[in-house]
Write a structure and sequence with these properties.
The complex is a heterodimer of chains A (114) and B (113). By secondary structure, chain A is an all-beta fold. Helices cover 0% and strands 53% of the residues of chain A. Chain A starts with a strand and ends with a strand. In chain B, 0% of the residues lie in helices and 52% in strands. Classes of the chains: A mainly beta (114), B mainly beta (113).
């Protein structure tokens, strides 16, 4: 079984500041990793995903994430946030073989203020 | 663009009522999912379906059932709603494969009084 830990339930930042949202996972098998974003009153949408290859993955809206296998982490970063980035962010994993389903973390609420 | 629609954005029901939540996707996806989202708990999988008339239990199936009679439609049924089923319900779909992005509907906020 897999588990995902998002260490921060809320991250408050000022506009134009950098931000890092942390995600650690536990799995006995290799996994694919995802970050989803949920804007207020909307469903989730994919921000980025790591399947293989380069450990630095770029996503939409200027976000990027780095896969670190030794630390079992997949932290999300943005060098300069905007008010419009205020949303809830979910990290998720799925085994890369066999048939399984996504396991989501509990989410991190990013609060960007002027 | 993939579109996943859910029949209601907000729903208020009484304890003991039978509740149907409908989800429709327009991209011929094989897989469909029902999640429940609660503050501090993230998303938890209730049921999923990988083909018409096929269903699999997720992590929290108790108190729920599902129906998939057509490929594009996946229904979540609360046989006898209870107050602890007050929650946000999210439907999603994707192609068959672990690498495939899940596409989510806007959610149905269900309140059971």
């Amino acid at each position: 079984a897999q588990s995902v830990t998002q260490l921060d339930s809320q991250v408050p930042v000022f506009e134009e500041a950098p931000v890092e949202l942390r995600c650690n996972y536990s799995s006995s098998v290799s996994v694919y990793l995802f970050w989803y974003v949920q804007y207020p009153n909307q469903g989730l949408q994919l921000l980025l995903k790591y399947l293989s290859g380069s450990t630095l993955v770029k996503g939409i809206n200027g976000f990027e994430a780095e896969f670190n296998k030794s630390q079992t982490s997949f932290h999300l970063r943005k060098p300069s946030v905007h008010i419009s980035d205020t949303a809830e962010y979910f990290c998720a994993v799925i085994p890369n073989s066999g048939y399984s389903t996504l396991t989501f973390g509990k989410g991190t609420m990013l609060l960007v203020s002027p | 663009d993939v579109k996943v629609t859910q029949s209601s954005r907000y729903l208020v029901k009484r304890t003991g009522e039978k509740v149907f939540l409908e989800c429709v996707q327009d991209m011929d996806h094989e897989n469909m999912f029902w999640y429940r989202q609660d503050p501090g708990l993230g998303l938890r999988l209730i049921y999923f379906s990988y083909d018409v008339k096929m269903k699999e239990k997720g992590d929290i199936p108790e108190g729920y059932s599902v129906s998939r009679e057509k490929k594009e439609r996946f229904s979540l049924i609360l046989e006898s709603a209870s107050t602890n089923q007050t929650s946000m319900y999210l439907c999603a779909s994707n192609l068959l494969g672990a690498t495939d992005t899940q596409y989510f509907g806007p959610g149905t906020r269900l309140t059971v009084l």
